[in-house]
Specification:
heterodimer, A: 341 residues, ABC transporter involved in vitamin B12 uptake, BtuC, two-stranded antiparallel sheet, B: 589 residues, alpha/beta, Rossmann fold, 2 domains, four-stranded antiparallel beta sheet, 23 helices, 12 strands
Chain lengths: 341, 589
């Protein structure tokens, strides 16, 4: 009983992290980030590959996406090809992923310490997240939530396919961050699960502080409410979108790295994990961080219990959990007109 | 929506294809697959492209159709044709249950919800014992007519494509009808549709069921085509692919669904057979290309291939002008007990701490033009929304023809003979002026979805369109009758809204800033029209900022400021009222 709750809370903490990232991205860019699950798998499997001395394909993907992003930037700036505009784009799109790739190649045969693997994995996935926004979503930034959602599904398909290409169909596990364990009464806390809790709580606090107190956070929120208004007030909305995707990809990769020592991850596991974070985000109405975190814990607990008592129907139960929530949301839905399409 | 002739030609060409000598049997299999996908995509066109409801879960409805016939034919030995109604019924019922929950969701909750139950149902299919778990059900009997068993792809081809052509015809008929207009009005928001008596949740549920039944039909055909079912083709990725098909083809067009299915099925085939050779990789290379293509397509051609193709076609179908000699019976009027049409008694509306309308009382009598004026933010449009049922009063009483309308929804207020226009024009831009105006006559028609699909609604439809054409003529827009509403100037769009409101056959017309954006001559014509309407027995309540227009036209003026009524009287009296001057020009005038 207690260990089910413990298991549920560990899973729930991961869903909470993902749910927070989804809320963040949606609030800033109106993109419902289905590829969030791929950030998880990419992060986890890149980390596992590095730890076992294999070259992760994601580092090359980051370089390729960076090159494409640079071409797009060049095309966008074709009227005014001056160094002042090109140089920053070159630095971010070309130099950054190339440096990451070079470090990866150098490090991979030398059995890097865990911390280095983690940082590298985060850097690789962060690049991918950043360029994903530049390539897929920035040109669509003015369109409806629906178009963005379909594009998001397209990105998910492509990234999942690439995931299979890079990591193969077999599952992988990564080394734990800490081997220590702690026993409190009947419960045994592994170092890994403590890391999960700590990181989740840390991120919730950090996001809360970031959005509540800093100017950048406020700028991001302003973009969420009204793009045009934010632009007129001097906020660079593309920058807001890039920051949101950067944060989301880092959070996704970190969640992946946190769970890959606990469970075996396959190239397509991320999608399901992401979707459960999603359910939490929807329960939170895609706006509320604390509600999302609470809902994620609930989802994790329900999952733990249903996998114990009715393991066959675990996924059915978790996904149909959404239906009563949607029902409540629809009953409470405000009768305000959504303008436009 | 185009003539019958191209459809007939298409049907003949499709019927002839298997007889082409040397036609590889593999191509027929591809065509079968195209037809199966096209059926689902057609439902999505109606649901997503036309109705604005995105569903990632359509594959689950195919699953309902396929598993129903699989279980009935294998476990109970029911003949395949007998299971068709059962399959359609099961997918329809599933749609009712899921739809009751999902269609009320706004915006992005709906597609998310569909992903969730799409996945849930997929896992359910793969875990239930009597559905054969992950292995599914095999040895499903083929369809047969007499002694002809539809065993090979070439014979079931006819069953599939007959279903496609018939479904396309029914869908086109449905769109080109009273119900179709209601569906097409949904995507642009609810308020305008509700103001003319459309019930958005009901209409959405109808479309949802229709799309599910088409998917169920596709599933039923699939089960007898593949002769085995397992959960894989009904999972989330299939659901995503169907949406992709609809978007590629052109989500707003029935034939876009068929074209999209053709493009995607052929493309997938090509990618699957050639990509591994090119890239020597393992696994799902086609999904990578697929995903990238989808994103690129959204960036380059967001409306799909079909509209692009039709824009290349030189001949534009001509629409017949409606026969204006047909007349609609007048709307049934409530017995007019009093001379007062509309009465507000201490009406109040509070949004949190903001009092938008503060205990306002006034009335509108029969054959009277009353103007509601006041500075910006005075609560004029809120008052309109209270009267038309869009908002509920916080306190106070509102009555129309002596009937208390507190808590009455907009659909019922329009039945009392109160119709309106909007400050921000709410027309459907990609519908013609005629069709937009005909939405106004929604409650005066009776044809339902089924009779529209089978074209039994034509007499009713002709009368509705005739009424719409007459009102368009009345407001002087006959030359623009076939143009798309979105292509007119803003001033003309306001006039179209007036024609639409007139189609209700109202006793009281509420106009929200009708003269904004009109040129001088147009304003004069509008004033003449409104006087004519009044002399014909109608009353008008209008919000307007153009003082020249108002003072010239209104019989009585009500002035609001910060939600409170500060003056009421004839135009002359109001013009010299010190309170009014203060509100408009500032204090100490």
């Amino acid at each position: 009983m207690l260990f089910l709750i413990q298991d549920g809370i560990t899973n729930g903490a991961i869903y909470a992290l993902l749910g927070l990232a989804l809320v963040l991205v949606f609030a800033v860019t109106r993109v419902i980030l289905i590829p969030q699950g791929e950030f998880v798998t990419y992060g986890a499997l890149t980390y596992a590959s590095l730890a076992s001395g294999q070259m992760p394909g994601t580092a090359k993907l980051a370089v390729a996406m960076g090159a494409a992003a640079f071409l797009l930037d060049l095309f966008a700036a074709r009227r005014e090809l001056v160094l002042r505009r090109i140089a920053p784009a070159f630095a971010v799109d070309i130099v950054l992923p190339c440096v990451v790739l070079a470090v990866t190649i150098w490090v991979v045969d030398r059995h890097p310490p865990t911390a280095v693997s983690i940082v590298l994995s985060l850097a690789i996935v962060a690049c991918i997240g950043l360029f994903l926004y530049r390539l897929a979503f920035q040109p669509l930034a003015h369109t409806s939530v629906l178009v963005l959602l379909i594009a998001s599904v397209g990105c998910h398909l492509a990234m999942q396919g690439l995931g299979l290409l890079f990591f193969g169909a077999e599952g992988q596990r990564g080394p734990a961050m800490a081997d220590a364990a702690l026993t409190v009464g009947p419960l045994r806390f592994t170092g890994q699960s403590i890391a999960v809790y700590a990181v989740t709580i840390g991120f919730i606090l950090a996001l809360w502080l970031f959005f509540g107190l800093t100017l950048y956070g406020k700028a991001l929120r302003a973009t969420a409410v009204n793009r045009l208004g934010a632009r007129l007030a001097g906020i660079r909305t593309t920058l807001s979108g890039q920051i949101a995707f950067l944060l989301a990809s880092v959070i996704g990769a970190l969640s992946g790295i946190l769970i890959v020592p606990i469970t075996t991850l396959y190239y397509d596991t991320g999608f399901l994990i992401g979707l459960k974070g999603f359910i939490a985000a929807i329960i939170g109405g895609l706006v509320s961080y604390p509600l999302t975190a609470l809902a994620a814990l609930a989802v994790g607990t329900v999952e733990a219990f249903s996998s114990f008592y009715a393991s066959n129907f675990k996924e059915v139960i978790v996904f149909t959990l959404l239906v009563p929530v949607l029902l409540l949301r629809s009953l409470a839905a405000p009768a305000i007109e959504e303008e436009g399409d | 929506m185009g003539g019958r002739l191209p459809v007939l030609l298409f049907a003949l060409v499709m019927a002839a294809i298997p007889f082409v000598p040397g036609m590889p049997p593999f191509w027929i299999v591809l065509l079968d697959n195209i037809g199966l996908s096209a059926l689902v995509a057609m439902g999505l066109v109606l649901l997503t492209g036309v109705g604005g409801l995105t569903s990632f879960g359509q594959a689950a409805f195919c699953g309902f159709g396929a598993y129903t016939t699989a279980v009935l034919t294998t476990a109970y030995g029911v003949s395949p044709w007998m299971t068709l109604p059962a399959s359609l019924l099961v997918s329809g019922l599933a749609a009712v249950l899921l739809g009751l929950v999902t269609v009320r969701l706004s915006g992005h909750y709906l597609p998310l919800g569909t992903i969730a139950w799409g996945l849930g149902l997929f896992y359910l299919f793969s875990k239930l014992e009597f559905l054969g778990r992950n292995d599914g059900i095999s040895h499903i009997p083929p369809l047969s007519i007499g002694s002809l068993k539809m065993l090979d792809p070439g014979t079931i081809y006819y069953a599939i494509w007959t279903a496609v052509v018939i479904s396309a015809l029914l869908t086109m008929n449905l769109l080109d009808s009273r119900t179709g207009r209601a569906i097409r009005a949904l995507r642009r928001g609810h308020i305008a549709a509700e103001a003319f008596g459309v019930h958005p949740p009901r209409t959405k549920l109808l479309v949802f069921i229709y799309a599910a039944v088409l998917a169920g039909l596709s599933g039923w055909l699939y089960a007898h085509f593949a002769r085995a079912v397992n959960p894989t083709p009904f999972g989330a990725s299939a659901g995503i692919e169907y949406l992709f098909i609809a978007v590629v083809g052109g989500a707003g067009f029935v034939w876009g669904g068929v074209l999209g299915a053709a493009i995607v099925v052929v493309l997938k085939e090509v990618l699957q057979s050639y990509l591994p050779m090119l890239l020597h990789g393992e696994g799902q290379l086609e999904t990578i290309v697929f995903g990238i293509l989808l994103v690129a397509l959204l960036q380059l051609a967001p409306t799909g291939v079909w509209p692009w193709l039709t824009s290349l076609w030189p001949l534009k179908p001509r629409r017949e002008r409606p026969d204006t000699s047909l007349t609609l019976p007048a709307r049934k009027r409530a017995p007019n007990v009093s001379r007062v049409l509309l009465e507000l008694d201490n009406a109040r509306k509070q949004f949190g701490g903001v009092i938008a309308v503060n205990n306002v009382s006034f009335d509108v009598k029969a054959r009277e033009i009353v103007a509601l004026i006041g500075p910006n933010g005075a609560g004029k449009s809120t008052t309109f929304n209270l009267v038309t049922g869009v908002l509920r009063t916080s306190s106070g009483a509102l009555s129309v023809l002596g009937k208390n309308i507190h808590n009455t929804p907009p659909q019922d207020i329009v039945k009392l003979g109160v119709s309106r226009t909007f400050q921000h024009v709410k027309l459907v831009p990609d519908m013609s002026v005629l069709e937009n105006v005909a939405i106004g006559a929604h409650l005066r028609g009776h044809a339902g979805a089924l009779s529209s699909m089978f074209r039994l609604d034509r007499a009713d439809e002709a009368r509705l369109l005739a009424e719409a054409a007459r009102q368009i003529d009345r407001v002087g827009l006959s030359d623009q009758i076939d143009q798309l509403a979105g292509s007119l100037s803003l001033g003309q769009q306001r006039i179209v809204e007036i024609a639409r409101a007139l189609c209700v056959d109202p006793v009281l017309l509420l106009l929200d800033e009708p003269a904004a954006g009109l040129r001088h001559m147009e304003k004069q014509r509008l004033a003449t029209l409104l006087r004519q309407l009044r002399d014909g027995g109608m009353s008008v309540l209008l919000v307007e900022h153009d003082m020249g227009f108002v003072m010239d036209l209104a019989d009585r003026v009500v002035v609001l400021d910060f939600g409170t009524k500060i003056a009421e009287g004839t135009p002359e009296a109001v013009k010299s009222d010190p309170e009014v001057i203060k509100a408009y020009l500032g204090a100490a005038a």
